[in-house]
Design goal:
Strand 5 (153-159), helix 6 (167-177) and strand 6 (181-186) form a beta-alpha-beta unit. It is globular, with a radius of gyration of 20 Å. The chain has 14 helices and nine strands. The protein has a nine-stranded mixed sheet with strand order 7-6-5-4-3-2-1-8-9, covered by helices on one side. The chain is an alpha/beta fold and 373 residues long. Bound molecules: iron/sulfur cluster and FE2/S2 (inorganic) cluster. Iron/sulfur cluster is lined by residues 238-239, 303-304, 307, 309-310, 313, 315-316, 331-332, 335, 337. Iron/sulfur cluster binds next to helix 12.
C-alpha cells in the first residue's frame, strides 16, 4: 500500500469533480472561470485507478461532484467502483435532468448519500437564481425520491442577497422533504461567484438575522434535522479552516485530472499542480509542489505565525488571501487580525449598500460575460 510520509497525515476526503458540465447557471458557482471541456475529462479507467489509489492512501469519503456528476455516462460504474473499494460515496447533484434516470442504477451501484442543492424555497425565485425554468420542481421530485428510496439526504442552500431573507422557508423546505441535514452555506467568493460578488453581497443586518434564524431552528429541530452553517467570510471575526487546512485532509481532482489542495487553488498564480495521468495520488499528496506550498505552519507570516489559533484555522483561506490581498501567503483578510480586514469590511458594506447589478450567468458554450476578469 502506498503511504504518505509520517509527518503528513493521510487525507480523509476526495472531491472528484467528474465534469464541469452542468444544466444550471448559478451566479455563485465557485467553479473556475475557465471550465474543463468534455473532451479533456478523465476517462473511466483513469477515474477508477485514482479512486483505488485514494482508498489505498486512506481516503474514506468520496464526493462525486461537478458540474453535474450524473452527466457522465459512467457515473454508475464509478460509484460501484467506490463501493468495491470501501469508499463512502456522496453524490453532489443538482437533481436535474440525467440524475432522475440514473438514481435507481446509482442505488444498485451502492451509493451511500445524496446532496441536492436548492436555490430558494419558492420555484420562481429559485429558478431565477439557477437560470433555468422548471429546475426547482425537478429538484423537489428528485429529493423526494431519494428519501423514499431510503438514502440519507442533505439539502444544500447557498445563501446570498437574493435569498437571505427566506432562510426560514428554506429550513421549512428541508424539513418537509425529510432531509437529515441542511447546509446553510453563505456564498464563498471564488471562481464565478467573485464575478457576481456585487450582486450577491448581503448586508450585515441580513447576515445577523439569518444566523439567528438558524440558531433558533437548530434548537427547535434537534434530533430531526442537523443544520450546518457556513458563515460569510466578509463579516467574520476569524476565518474558517479552509479545506480543513491546506494539504491536511482533502484532495480535489478536477475533471481533467489536476490534483488540487482546494477547489480554487488554480486561481493562485505560480503554483505547480501535478496530474493523475502522470503520477500516483500518493506521490502527488506527499510531494506535489502545490500541496507543499502552504502545508503546516512554516510558511506563515505574522500575525498567524505567533497566533494561538494557527493550528485551528491554519491561517484561513489561501485563495481568498490572494484574491483580496494579492498575496496567497498573507493572513486571510477575513481574519480581524489581518491588516487587510478593514478593507474587506468596507468592501462588503459598500457592495451591500449599493443597488445590486443583474446576475452574470454563464454556460460552457454561451458565456454571457465577455471577460469577467
Ligand atoms: Fe487564524 Fe492567522 Fe487570524 Fe490567527 S492571525 S486567527 S492564525 S488567520
Ligand atoms: Fe483555496 Fe480556501 S479556497 S484555500
Amino acid at each position: 500500500m502506498a503511504m504518505a510520509p509520517e509527518h503528513n497525515p493521510a487525507p480523509i476526503g476526495l472531491l472528484a469533480e467528474l465534469t464541469h458540465r452542468c444544466p444550471l447557471r448559478c451566479p455563485y458557482c465557485s467553479n473556475p472561470l475557465a471550465l474543463d471541456r468534455r473532451s479533456g475529462e478523465l476517462d473511466t479507467a483513469a477515474w477508477t485507478r485514482v479512486l483505488s489509489e485514494a482508498a489505498a492512501l486512506g481516503v474514506l469519503h468520496v464526493h462525486l461532484s461537478g458540474g453535474e456528476p450524473t452527466a457522465r455516462a459512467d457515473i454508475e460504474e464509478i460509484t460501484a467502483h467506490c463501493a468495491h473499494e470501501g469508499l463512502y460515496t456522496n453524490l453532489i447533484t443538482s437533481g436535474i435532468g440525467p440524475a432522475h434516470a440514473k438514481l435507481d442504477g446509482l442505488v444498485r451501484a451502492g451509493l451511500d448519500h445524496v446532496q441536492v442543492s436548492v436555490q430558494a424555497a419558492d420555484a420562481g425565485e429559485a429558478d431565477a437564481i439557477a437560470g433555468l425554468g422548471g429546475a426547482h420542481e425537478q429538484k423537489l421530485t428528485f429529493a423526494r425520491r431519494v428519501v423514499a428510496i431510503g438514502l440519507p439526504l442533505t439539502i444544500n442552500a447557498v445563501i446570498h442577497r437574493g435569498n437571505i431573507r427566506h432562510v426560514d422557508r428554506i429550513i421549512g423546505l428541508a424539513v418537509s422533504l425529510g432531509a437529515k441535514r441542511l447546509e446553510i452555506a453563505h456564498t464563498q467568493y471564488y471562481g464565478w461567484a467573485l464575478v457576481n460578488r456585487a450582486a450577491l453581497m448581503p448586508s450585515r443586518e441580513d447576515v445577523d438575522r439569518s444566523i439567528a434564524t438558524v440558531e433558533v431552528a437548530r434548537a427547535r429541530l434537534e434530533g430531526r434535522l442537523v443544520i450546518d452553517l457556513v458563515v460569510p467570510d466578509y463579516y467574520a471575526l476569524y476565518p474558517k479552516a479552509c479545506a480543513g487546512g491546506w494539504g491536511r485532509r482533502l484532495i480535489n481532482v478536477t475533471p481533467s485530472g489536476q490534483v488540487l489542495p482546494c477547489h480554487a487553488a488554480q486561481t493562485i498564480p505560480g503554483l505547480e499542480f501535478w496530474n493523475v495521468t502522470d503520477r500516483s495520488l500518493a506521490e502527488i499528496w506527499s510531494a506535489s509542489p502545490a500541496f507543499q506550498a502552504f502545508r503546516g505552519t512554516d510558511w506563515m507570516p505574522d500575525p498567524c505565525r505567533s497566533c494561538d489559533r494557527r493550528e485551528r484555522d491554519w491561517g484561513g483561506c489561501r485563495c481568498q488571501a490572494f484574491a483580496l490581498a494579492g498575496d496567497a501567503a498573507a493572513t486571510d483578510p477575513a481574519c480581524s487580525l489581518s491588516p487587510h480586514h478593514a478593507m474587506i469590511q468596507g468592501l462588503a458594506a459598500a457592495e451591500a449598500d449599493a443597488e445590486p447589478p443583474a446576475y452574470a450567468y454563464r454556460t460552457m458554450s454561451r458565456p454571457t460575460v465577455a471577460d469577467p476578469a
